[in-house]
Amino acid sequence: MVSLKSTQALQSTGASMEDRIILALKPKIDELDRKVLADETLGSDDINTLLLQHQFNHIHHLEIRADEMDVRMDRQDLRMDHIEADITEIRIEIVSMEGRLDVHMSELRGELNGKMVDLSGKLCTEMAELRGYVQTDLVTVRLEMTILSSELRSDMASFQAEIRGEMATLGTDLRMEMATLGAELRTEMATLGTELRTEMASLRSDMLAMEGRLEGQIKEVKVYVEKAINRAMFFYIASITFLVTVLQLINTFAPH
Length: 256
What we know:
- The protein is an all-alpha fold.
- It has one domain (41-253).
- It is 92% helix and 0% strand.
- The chain has helices at 4-12, 17-37, 44-130, 135-253.
- Helix 2 (17-37) crosses helix 3 and helix 3 (44-130) runs antiparallel to helix 4.
- The longest helix has 119 residues, at 135-253.
- Mean pLDDT is 77; it is low at 1-14.
Protein backbone atom coordinates (compact mmCIF):
# COMPACT_ATOMS: atom_id res chain seq x y z
CA MET A 1 0.00 0.00 0.00
CA VAL A 2 1.15 3.55 -0.77
CA SER A 3 1.50 5.75 2.27
CA LEU A 4 -0.57 8.93 2.63
CA LYS A 5 2.59 11.05 2.86
CA SER A 6 3.88 9.70 -0.50
CA THR A 7 0.56 10.42 -2.20
CA GLN A 8 0.45 13.95 -0.81
CA ALA A 9 4.04 14.51 -1.93
CA LEU A 10 3.19 13.42 -5.49
CA GLN A 11 0.15 15.71 -5.55
CA SER A 12 2.16 18.67 -4.26
CA THR A 13 4.89 18.18 -6.93
CA GLY A 14 2.33 17.94 -9.74
CA ALA A 15 3.14 14.33 -10.68
CA SER A 16 1.13 12.77 -13.52
CA MET A 17 -1.47 10.06 -13.04
CA GLU A 18 0.89 7.55 -14.68
CA ASP A 19 3.58 8.32 -12.08
CA ARG A 20 1.06 7.84 -9.29
CA ILE A 21 -0.06 4.49 -10.67
CA ILE A 22 3.56 3.35 -11.05
CA LEU A 23 4.24 4.38 -7.42
CA ALA A 24 1.15 2.46 -6.30
CA LEU A 25 2.29 -0.64 -8.20
CA LYS A 26 5.91 -0.53 -6.98
CA PRO A 27 5.27 -2.44 -3.71
CA LYS A 28 3.37 -5.14 -5.63
CA ILE A 29 6.17 -5.39 -8.20
CA ASP A 30 8.75 -5.71 -5.40
CA GLU A 31 6.63 -8.41 -3.77
CA LEU A 32 6.33 -10.18 -7.14
CA ASP A 33 10.13 -10.09 -7.60
CA ARG A 34 10.52 -11.57 -4.13
CA LYS A 35 8.10 -14.41 -4.92
CA VAL A 36 9.87 -15.19 -8.18
CA LEU A 37 13.25 -15.29 -6.45
CA ALA A 38 11.77 -17.49 -3.67
CA ASP A 39 10.11 -19.76 -6.29
CA GLU A 40 6.70 -19.15 -4.77
CA THR A 41 3.40 -19.67 -6.56
CA LEU A 42 2.11 -16.61 -8.43
CA GLY A 43 -1.53 -15.68 -7.86
CA SER A 44 -3.98 -14.03 -10.24
CA ASP A 45 -3.19 -10.61 -8.72
CA ASP A 46 0.49 -11.16 -9.44
CA ILE A 47 -0.24 -12.08 -13.06
CA ASN A 48 -2.49 -9.04 -13.42
CA THR A 49 0.30 -6.89 -11.97
CA LEU A 50 2.73 -8.30 -14.58
CA LEU A 51 0.23 -7.58 -17.36
CA LEU A 52 -0.35 -4.06 -16.11
CA GLN A 53 3.39 -3.38 -15.91
CA HIS A 54 3.87 -4.68 -19.46
CA GLN A 55 1.02 -2.49 -20.70
CA PHE A 56 2.60 0.59 -19.09
CA ASN A 57 5.93 -0.21 -20.75
CA HIS A 58 4.16 -0.69 -24.09
CA ILE A 59 2.24 2.60 -23.70
CA HIS A 60 5.51 4.37 -22.90
CA HIS A 61 7.07 2.92 -26.08
CA LEU A 62 4.08 4.12 -28.13
CA GLU A 63 4.39 7.61 -26.63
CA ILE A 64 8.06 7.70 -27.66
CA ARG A 65 7.12 6.66 -31.21
CA ALA A 66 4.36 9.30 -31.30
CA ASP A 67 6.88 11.98 -30.23
CA GLU A 68 9.23 10.84 -33.02
CA MET A 69 6.40 11.08 -35.55
CA ASP A 70 5.59 14.60 -34.29
CA VAL A 71 9.24 15.60 -34.78
CA ARG A 72 9.23 14.22 -38.33
CA MET A 73 5.97 16.02 -39.14
CA ASP A 74 7.46 19.26 -37.77
CA ARG A 75 10.45 18.76 -40.07
CA GLN A 76 8.10 18.25 -43.02
CA ASP A 77 6.21 21.43 -42.09
CA LEU A 78 9.53 23.31 -41.90
CA ARG A 79 10.53 21.96 -45.30
CA MET A 80 7.18 23.05 -46.74
CA ASP A 81 7.77 26.53 -45.28
CA HIS A 82 11.17 26.61 -47.04
CA ILE A 83 9.54 25.52 -50.30
CA GLU A 84 6.89 28.24 -49.98
CA ALA A 85 9.63 30.78 -49.24
CA ASP A 86 11.51 29.67 -52.40
CA ILE A 87 8.33 29.99 -54.46
CA THR A 88 7.76 33.46 -53.02
CA GLU A 89 11.33 34.45 -53.95
CA ILE A 90 10.77 33.13 -57.50
CA ARG A 91 7.57 35.16 -57.79
CA ILE A 92 9.36 38.27 -56.51
CA GLU A 93 12.14 37.69 -59.06
CA ILE A 94 9.54 37.33 -61.85
CA VAL A 95 7.89 40.59 -60.79
CA SER A 96 11.31 42.23 -60.68
CA MET A 97 12.13 40.94 -64.17
CA GLU A 98 8.79 42.25 -65.46
CA GLY A 99 9.64 45.62 -63.96
CA ARG A 100 13.06 45.61 -65.60
CA LEU A 101 11.48 44.60 -68.92
CA ASP A 102 8.98 47.44 -68.63
CA VAL A 103 11.81 49.90 -67.94
CA HIS A 104 13.80 48.49 -70.84
CA MET A 105 10.81 48.76 -73.17
CA SER A 106 10.21 52.33 -72.05
CA GLU A 107 13.85 53.16 -72.74
CA LEU A 108 13.62 51.54 -76.16
CA ARG A 109 10.43 53.47 -76.96
CA GLY A 110 12.16 56.69 -75.90
CA GLU A 111 15.16 55.91 -78.09
CA LEU A 112 12.92 54.99 -81.02
CA ASN A 113 10.88 58.15 -80.56
CA GLY A 114 14.06 60.18 -80.44
CA LYS A 115 15.35 58.49 -83.57
CA MET A 116 12.02 59.01 -85.31
CA VAL A 117 12.06 62.68 -84.36
CA ASP A 118 15.62 63.04 -85.60
CA LEU A 119 14.76 61.14 -88.76
CA SER A 120 11.69 63.26 -89.34
CA GLY A 121 13.77 66.42 -88.95
CA LYS A 122 16.36 65.12 -91.38
CA LEU A 123 13.67 64.07 -93.84
CA CYS A 124 12.02 67.47 -93.67
CA THR A 125 15.35 69.15 -94.29
CA GLU A 126 16.19 66.82 -97.14
CA MET A 127 12.72 67.17 -98.66
CA ALA A 128 13.07 70.97 -98.53
CA GLU A 129 16.44 70.74 -100.23
CA LEU A 130 15.25 68.11 -102.78
CA ARG A 131 12.17 69.96 -103.94
CA GLY A 132 14.14 71.39 -106.81
CA TYR A 133 15.75 68.14 -107.75
CA VAL A 134 14.66 65.82 -110.50
CA GLN A 135 12.25 62.89 -110.12
CA THR A 136 15.16 60.40 -109.92
CA ASP A 137 16.37 61.93 -106.68
CA LEU A 138 12.86 61.65 -105.21
CA VAL A 139 12.76 57.91 -106.04
CA THR A 140 16.13 57.46 -104.33
CA VAL A 141 14.87 59.19 -101.19
CA ARG A 142 11.74 57.01 -101.08
CA LEU A 143 13.92 53.88 -101.40
CA GLU A 144 16.06 54.97 -98.46
CA MET A 145 12.90 55.55 -96.40
CA THR A 146 11.67 52.05 -97.20
CA ILE A 147 15.01 50.51 -96.19
CA LEU A 148 15.03 52.39 -92.89
CA SER A 149 11.47 51.31 -92.11
CA SER A 150 12.31 47.66 -92.87
CA GLU A 151 15.33 47.76 -90.56
CA LEU A 152 13.24 49.25 -87.75
CA ARG A 153 10.56 46.58 -88.12
CA SER A 154 13.20 43.84 -88.18
CA ASP A 155 14.82 45.19 -85.00
CA MET A 156 11.46 45.33 -83.22
CA ALA A 157 10.54 41.78 -84.28
CA SER A 158 13.94 40.43 -83.13
CA PHE A 159 13.64 42.13 -79.75
CA GLN A 160 10.09 40.80 -79.22
CA ALA A 161 11.25 37.27 -80.12
CA GLU A 162 14.08 37.49 -77.57
CA ILE A 163 11.67 38.61 -74.82
CA ARG A 164 9.22 35.79 -75.62
CA GLY A 165 12.03 33.20 -75.57
CA GLU A 166 13.31 34.43 -72.21
CA MET A 167 9.81 34.36 -70.67
CA ALA A 168 9.16 30.84 -72.03
CA THR A 169 12.48 29.57 -70.60
CA LEU A 170 11.71 31.07 -67.20
CA GLY A 171 8.22 29.50 -67.16
CA THR A 172 9.63 26.08 -68.13
CA ASP A 173 12.26 26.22 -65.35
CA LEU A 174 9.60 27.19 -62.80
CA ARG A 175 7.30 24.32 -63.84
CA MET A 176 10.16 21.80 -63.68
CA GLU A 177 11.13 23.00 -60.17
CA MET A 178 7.52 22.72 -58.95
CA ALA A 179 7.21 19.21 -60.42
CA THR A 180 10.45 18.09 -58.73
CA LEU A 181 9.36 19.46 -55.35
CA GLY A 182 5.95 17.78 -55.66
CA ALA A 183 7.52 14.41 -56.52
CA GLU A 184 9.89 14.63 -53.54
CA LEU A 185 7.01 15.47 -51.20
CA ARG A 186 4.87 12.58 -52.47
CA THR A 187 7.80 10.17 -52.09
CA GLU A 188 8.40 11.30 -48.49
CA MET A 189 4.70 10.93 -47.58
CA ALA A 190 4.60 7.42 -49.10
CA THR A 191 7.70 6.44 -47.08
CA LEU A 192 6.13 7.72 -43.86
CA GLY A 193 2.92 5.77 -44.57
CA THR A 194 4.88 2.56 -45.20
CA GLU A 195 6.86 2.96 -41.96
CA LEU A 196 3.66 3.58 -39.98
CA ARG A 197 1.95 0.50 -41.43
CA THR A 198 5.03 -1.62 -40.68
CA GLU A 199 5.09 -0.36 -37.08
CA MET A 200 1.37 -1.14 -36.60
CA ALA A 201 1.86 -4.67 -37.98
CA SER A 202 4.78 -5.22 -35.60
CA LEU A 203 2.68 -4.05 -32.65
CA ARG A 204 -0.13 -6.46 -33.59
CA SER A 205 2.37 -9.33 -33.80
CA ASP A 206 3.78 -8.43 -30.36
CA MET A 207 0.27 -8.36 -28.85
CA LEU A 208 -0.59 -11.77 -30.31
CA ALA A 209 2.71 -13.24 -29.11
CA MET A 210 2.17 -11.81 -25.61
CA GLU A 211 -1.36 -13.24 -25.53
CA GLY A 212 -0.01 -16.69 -26.46
CA ARG A 213 2.67 -16.51 -23.76
CA LEU A 214 0.10 -15.48 -21.13
CA GLU A 215 -2.18 -18.35 -22.06
CA GLY A 216 0.75 -20.76 -21.73
CA GLN A 217 1.69 -19.33 -18.33
CA ILE A 218 -1.92 -19.61 -17.11
CA LYS A 219 -2.05 -23.25 -18.20
CA GLU A 220 1.24 -23.96 -16.41
CA VAL A 221 -0.09 -22.33 -13.23
CA LYS A 222 -3.28 -24.41 -13.40
CA VAL A 223 -1.28 -27.63 -13.83
CA TYR A 224 0.99 -26.68 -10.94
CA VAL A 225 -1.99 -25.92 -8.67
CA GLU A 226 -3.66 -29.23 -9.57
CA LYS A 227 -0.45 -31.12 -8.82
CA ALA A 228 -0.12 -29.31 -5.49
CA ILE A 229 -3.73 -30.18 -4.53
CA ASN A 230 -3.23 -33.83 -5.48
CA ARG A 231 0.00 -33.96 -3.48
CA ALA A 232 -1.70 -32.44 -0.43
CA MET A 233 -4.62 -34.90 -0.68
CA PHE A 234 -2.17 -37.79 -0.92
CA PHE A 235 -0.29 -36.68 2.21
CA TYR A 236 -3.58 -36.11 4.03
CA ILE A 237 -4.87 -39.62 3.23
CA ALA A 238 -1.49 -41.12 4.08
CA SER A 239 -1.50 -39.31 7.45
CA ILE A 240 -5.03 -40.54 8.27
CA THR A 241 -4.06 -44.10 7.32
CA PHE A 242 -0.94 -43.91 9.49
CA LEU A 243 -2.90 -42.64 12.49
CA VAL A 244 -5.50 -45.39 12.10
CA THR A 245 -2.74 -48.01 11.90
CA VAL A 246 -1.05 -46.60 15.03
CA LEU A 247 -4.34 -46.67 16.96
CA GLN A 248 -4.97 -50.25 15.92
CA LEU A 249 -1.48 -51.26 17.08
CA ILE A 250 -2.02 -49.48 20.39
CA ASN A 251 -5.32 -51.26 20.91
CA THR A 252 -3.72 -54.60 19.99
CA PHE A 253 -0.76 -54.38 22.35
CA ALA A 254 -2.47 -52.54 25.19
CA PRO A 255 -3.11 -54.66 28.38
CA HIS A 256 -6.78 -55.61 28.91
